[in-house]
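Researcher: Going back to the complex we discussed earlier. I've cleaned up the inputs and rechecked each line, so this should be the final set. Can you rerun the prediction on the complete assembly and write out the structure?
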Amino acid sequence: MKTIKILHMYADMLDLYGDSGNMEVISFRCKKRGIECQIDRYSIDSAMPDFSSYDLIYIGGGADLEQQHISADLLKCREGIVDAYKKGTFLFLICGGYQLMGKYYRDADGNDIKGLGLFDYFTVAPNSRRKRCIGNIVIETEITGKKVKVVGFENHGGQTQEVKTPFGKVLYGNGNCSKSAAEGYCEKNVIATYLHGPCLSKNPEISDYMIGYCVNRGESAKISLESLDDTLEKECRQVMLDRLLKK
Ligand code: GLN
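Model: Rerun complete. Updated structure for the full complex:
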């Protein structure tokens, strides 16, 4: 089987609430199946990578200040990322990373941080830093082909608007805007979400959707993933579902 290649961008700047843990989960699940997984890092001043040579590009979340710091560098990568996305590289984006793939993020001080404009949504934070969407969140997504409940933790001021194809519907928590019905953005090769946690630790189906996508990218015959014993992961998720959804 081919080696899965992942590019983790700005791990040193955008890594809130265990976002880097998502890379550990993917690498662990690949290792259990004997799939080679190479994770490279890119940050400000790294040499410009060949983005389309990666099966997956990952960007975590960050505070407004970190988003400002990486913004100019991210814009330099625009052409490469757009090209990779068009060639089928998977984009996995958490919170601040999600916001910066849209048109812009207007931060709590009213400064516009230009996004890559890859997608049509935009994000505006309220002027007051006290008005934030903070807490546990449960959504239901169908990206894997069947309904899956996904649990995580959100902490964002940004209210993301004009999202055409959300990642899931909100069962508990806020989502794209305060008390909104929809959460995140998705396409076949994009998952953009406000869920930290790290998101993948209690949601093995989402990890496997991405691993399966990467393993099959460019292959003519479909490769199925060996199933793993996810008893512990699912029990952890169930604790949260019981706590949050049962009245
Ligand atoms: N700074 C952004 C906001 O507050 C993103 C936060 C995050 O990545 N958790 O909306």
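Model: Worth noting: The chain has a mean pLDDT of 96.
Researcher: Good, that matches what I expected from the previous run.
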